[in-house]
Amino acid sequence: MEFTTVGVVGAGVMGVGVAQNLAQRGHQVVLVDISDEVLDNARRELRNSLRAYALFNKGSGVDPAAVFEKIEFTTDYELLAKADFVVENVTEDWGIKQQVYERIDRIVRPDVVFAVNTSAISITRVGSVTTRPDRVIGMHFMNPVPMKPMVEVIRGHHTTPETIDTARRFLAGMGKECIVVEDVPGFVSNRVLMLTINEAAFLVQDGVAPAADVDRIFQTCFDHKMGPLETADLIGLDTILKSVEVLYESFNDSKYRPAPLLKKMVAAGLLGRKSGEGFHKYH
């Protein structure tokens, strides 16, 4: 199968990144979200990201205007009928994801694979609300998507080897490799990362060290490019909180209890880079 047109559902940070990566590799993209306001913001983010990419990758041959033209921004889910592959990137909320999949399952061709871009939600559970559980697979992209060469791919209970092969070919077309893991909450990356970030938030909350020092320890002692709290700001503290809550609910283990400081910051709108302030300021 050729992936000429790819549907991307959800025009937040991850959805824009996936759409950009796909368009840069020559795909036509239908980028769907529920409001024109979200799509207008996505257009701005995409223009900024493309300018930055062209600036820092001068030999790449990427033409920002040509890439932008390959992406169709729309609130009309029916346009997904022409998609040859779908990547879903909506918020980490099961109720919302369930509604999205029940909706797109009726629109998208039965042979098309659904890739769930999630950090914690069960791929098997997503597949259960569709008529194609064998064609549902997890694709945990990393941010910023165009710059990251690896994707964590998750095999649901019903996901077939053929779907995994299709996913590998799709990702290779994006210039990415993948590692396939099993469908348990948080998979590999976020089962470790979210616990680390949550514990780092407890450190700040308990006055053990300020956020800058927590991050500096990880950067200088362990050669991490970013500390856990700077990473949290990049991902978005609202996404972090939802992911930790999914882990807490899934495992019923107190070690995943969300830090009260994390919950307070999200309630205050301190979401990280996208809001201008999280554990660090970005003004």
Automatic annotation (TrEMBL):
The keyword Membrane does not apply. InterPro entries: 3-OHacyl-CoA_DH (IPR022694), 3-OHacyl-CoA_DH_NAD-bd (IPR006176), 3HC_DH_C (IPR006108), 6-PGluconate_DH-like_C_sf (IPR008927), 6PGD_dom2 (IPR013328), NAD(P)-bd_dom_sf (IPR036291). Residues 5-183 form the 3-hydroxyacyl-CoA dehydrogenase NAD binding domain. Its EC number is 1.1.1.35. Residues 186-282 form the 3-hydroxyacyl-CoA dehydrogenase C-terminal domain. Gene3D superfamilies: N-(1-d-carboxylethyl)-l-norvaline Dehydrogenase, domain 2, NAD(P)-binding Rossmann-like Domain. Keywords: Oxidoreductase. Pfam families: 3HCDH, 3HCDH_N. It is an enzyme of class 1 (oxidoreductase). GO terms for molecular function: (3S)-3-hydroxyacyl-CoA dehydrogenase (NAD+) activity. Pathway: Lipid metabolism; butanoate metabolism. PANTHER family: 3-HYDROXYACYL-COA DEHYDROGENASE FAMILY PROTEIN, 3-HYDROXYBUTYRYL-COA DEHYDROGENASE. Belongs to the 3-hydroxyacyl-CoA dehydrogenase family. This is 3-hydroxyacyl-CoA dehydrogenase family protein. It comes from Streptomyces pulveraceus.
